[in-house]
């Protein structure tokens, strides 16, 4: 067996372990928090008072306009200067969640605004309040439109979690760095890490296609009935 293949075989489990124990949970938790934040921000942009619109617009502008890596550095390495000390995993979750929230809030706002005004008027004519119209009529339609971009955001986050290595979070890339520092084979280890990210992303892409087909069939069934 070639030496490089033997090294990849020996390092496979440590990298997979780092992915399953750190990368996957970090992605799921950050995306869930970010999606909830994005929904709140989108609603404030659309229906909030003037002061809240200004606040959330500044938040979106700040986190969409600055690099994610810089945001992580500010949260983990900068905040201790003002007395706020966070452990690496918590800092990573906060950074990724705020970044995801800023980007996905624009997705959610856009799809809500794309729903025809007649849908709102029809809901109001049935005696629904704005909250009821949003929950019962608008959001189910918006969810089908938002699924592809939100799925893409989730897949992108899987890859972005590699940036957590700079915060010493022992995810896939950080595990590859540790092994490479001992074996002096960075090309092999980093290539293997890239392949693992590729496998994770491919699985999620396949799940995205199935979800879109399922939502598409549901939409056809609903319109047909």
TrEMBL record:
Matching CDD domains: TM_PBP2
Signal sequence residues: none
Residue ranges of domain ABC transmembrane type-1 in the record: 16-208
UniProt keyword Lyase, yes or no: no
Major localization class: membrane
Membrane topology summary: Multi-pass membrane protein
Keywords: Amino-acid transport, Cell membrane, Membrane, Transmembrane, Transmembrane helix, Transport
MF term (GO), any: transmembrane transporter activity
A Pfam family assignment: BPD_transp_1
One of the protein's GO biological processes: amino acid transport
GO cellular component, one term: ATP-binding cassette (ABC) transporter complex
Superkingdom, natural source: Bacteria
Subcellular location: Cell inner membrane; Cell membrane
Ranges annotated as spanning the membrane: 20-46
Similarity section: Belongs to the binding-protein-dependent transport system permease family. HisMQ subfamily.
The protein's name: ABC transporter permease subunit
Organism: Paraburkholderia franconis
């Amino acid at each position: 067996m070639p030496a490089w293949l033997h090294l990849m075989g020996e390092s496979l489990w440590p990298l997979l372990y780092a992915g399953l124990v750190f990368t996957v949970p970090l992605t799921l938790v950050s995306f869930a928090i970010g999606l909830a934040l994005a929904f709140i921000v989108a609603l404030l942009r659309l229906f909030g008072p003037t002061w809240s619109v200004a606040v959330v617009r500044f938040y979106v502008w700040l986190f969409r306009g600055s690099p994610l890596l810089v945001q992580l550095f500010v949260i983990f390495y900068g905040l201790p200067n003002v007395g706020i000390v966070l452990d690496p995993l918590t800092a990573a979750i906060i950074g990724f969640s705020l970044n995801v929230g800023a980007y996905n809030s624009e997705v959610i706002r856009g799809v809500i605004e794309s729903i025809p005004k007649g849908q709102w008027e029809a809901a109001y004519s049935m005696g629904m309040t704005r909250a009821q119209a949003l929950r019962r009529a608008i959001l189910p339609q918006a969810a089908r439109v938002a699924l592809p971009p939100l799925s893409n955001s989730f897949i992108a986050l899987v890859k972005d979690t590699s940036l957590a290595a700079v915060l010493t979070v022992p995810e896939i890339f950080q595990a590859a760095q540790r092994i490479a520092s001992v074996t002096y084979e960075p090309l092999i280890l980093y290539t293997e890490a890239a392949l693992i990210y590729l496998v994770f992303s491919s699985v999620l892409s396949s799940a995205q296609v199935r979800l879109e087909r399922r939502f598409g069939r549901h939409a056809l069934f609903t319109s047909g009935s």
